[in-house]
Amino acid sequence: QEKSCRLSAALLGEGSEISQEQLYELLKYAALGKCHHAAQPSWCRIYHQSHLAGVVVVVLHEMSQLHFYRFYLQFKHLRKVFRHRFTLTPSANFPVSLYGEGTNLKPQNTPQGLTSPSSECITKSSDLQCDPIIQRYGEKKQGLTSYTLTLEEQKKNDYPIEGSPGCKGFISTECDQQRTDSSPLFGLDCEMCQTAKGNEVTRVSLVDARGQCLLNELVKPESTVVNYRTRLSGITKKMLLPVKTRLSDIQTRLKKMLPHDAVLVGHSLNSDLQALEMIHPSVIDTSLLFARSEGRRFKLKFLAKAVLGKEIQCEQKLGHDPTEDARAALELAQFFIEQGPTKVAELNLEMLLTAEKLAEVSKNKAALQPQGCGFQEQLNEPPPLPKPCFLDCLQVTGQKPVLLGRQGLDSSGLCQSNLSTSNKQILQRALEDVPLSKFSIIQFSLGPEYVASHLHAGLHEKVRSKLTDMLTIYAGPFEENFCIKSVKKEFGRCGPIQSLTVVTETFQPYVCIQYEVLEAAQLAVESLNGAEVAGSCIKVQRPVTAAMLDCNVLIKELELDVENEGVIYVAGLKKSLTETDLREEFSQLKDLEALFLPKDLQSGKHRNCCFLKFQKSQSAMDALEAINGWTMKGSELRSRNALAPGHLWRWIWQMNHSNGKQGKHIFYEKVEQLSDSEQDLRKRVKKLDHHIKKLYRSLQNNTLCVVLFPGVNSTHGSQPGLGLMGIKDDEGRSAC
């Protein structure tokens, strides 16, 4: 049974910020495993990394933690799916810090033409013994029969075999195995589309030993087409509409065209024969002929250029040309047979592949460099060595990453080649490309009109004001000479108080209390409204403002947030209690996994509250019942479900203790100015959340998905970013 991947990020409960370097550390390990000096990240752990189906990073351009909590209700999918969140340190150049500046792997001489390697690229005779081609075939030239796959090799590489359970109903070419070194070679290639049945043939090409095309036919699939794969196959719905030829017709024609001793040649020919539902005994597979170590395979496009000097599968063309591919595979087999293993090994294809990949990466990055920045070149000083880029390593190992972004955001560095004009286009391209790649970076944006610094300033003030209102409660009325110490003590049992003031503008005095954590304010409303405090029966309520009308909805959604699952808040602790004391006191609670004790970020002293995380939600509910009314060291405890994860608690504290808060009159002026654009912004955020939901649902199980709000770091101010991550499981949610 296949192992499922798992992600552990226990440190996130402390609300600590994750740096760009730590994020890079995670992505590098997820993408490469232990190769290229990649190691488990220091702040979280990926279990069974080798079983990851892929890594998908979604970057929300110019968005910060501020956006996530301002539009918390609109981000319905994000907050319900991802179990792990962390505050992200903002960066002036986020994409560079995300995947590195470049590579330290610089080839001394990058070949101009891969067909004519310099003498430096020729492998020494003493090194040839280690070449996979020599190890498999020896050094001497042999006839073609030495390179046809044996029955065991065909079974191992999923070729259709007579009598195999999966080949029921397959048609035999009726060719025998009486092949000789003079047997005729035929190149075969098919293009497939995805149907309700699976892969079905849509086009077949056959060429003879001289490269002449014998068959180039469109085929109508039997089942309904789900995906034409136009970018790869070149096949469209319109092309197949008039086609009458069926698979059975092609099978009959191939049987008639192939002589009894025919040897079929193709690149990963097993896929073509499986789609054709045909069995043929004599095959040469060029993906296996040009052997590599550890079961890896060269792509046909690379081999055609490196060995034959031919460009095939050009990006300017729509889809692959099966006749061109069949001819290339045939010529590669002929070259191998005529030249022999030693000559092929001396080409040093691994080195040529590395040189080609690095040249391609360097070319892409050079095209992104802004013009007019040649000061260093004018001084004739060599540029500093760039930070190693794990995307380079991916490309060198044959895993081409997908980088999709929006036009007009070139400065981000993400849009290397695949630019789109809208989020919808990016999504459509991602749904097609991401399943074919092991590593993808997808960049969405709200649009250039929503990244201006003054909009960020207005957004920040709105969020700060709303959080302040949610942390604030009004209590009263009290008698004229009420004991303020008694009030502070009673309300302090709900959690840490930041400020307490007496309101004297009313007929009878009230108190205004601002807490440091959301749970404390909510606990005060729930437990003390209607209670008798300082000799008076009081009412406890939050401020009544337009922004607070949806407060109860927001509280409920925070309570249901996936990150707060199994987490409870406990208040009324004595400050003299240490973390060790608390662990001992709470040790009797079933399935207790972690304890988080908030601290004052300036003094380092812990607060009179803590958060408890349980392995199971039911255990958390049982603990709530048990704790309420507990007396610990003479202090009565109060408890409720958690509302704010560690990173949010830290952020609230920083906002409340930041200097230079703007006055209310400035805030209301900005609300008036931004009200129209905010309505549009809410719609855009909701649509963005829907795009991510659609992309996420298309991912394979065991895919690590990371959604990043990069944050803002500019001359106008800084806003921390936010990361959400998880590994998709069978239920479509992110696994722990």
UniProtKB/TrEMBL annotation:
Keywords, ordered alphabetically: Exonuclease, Hydrolase, Nuclease, RNA-binding
Signal peptide segment: none
Domain RRM, first and last residues per copy: 471-545, 566-644
GO CC annotations on file: nucleus
One matching Pfam family: RRM_1
A GO molecular-function descriptor: exonuclease activity
Entry-linked InterPro entries: Nucleotide-bd_a/b_plait_sf, RBD_domain_sf, REX1-like_exo, REXO1/3/4-like, Ribonucl_H, RNaseH-like_sf, RNaseH_sf, RRM_dom
Protein name in UniProt: REXO5 exonuclease
Recorded name of the encoding gene: Rexo5
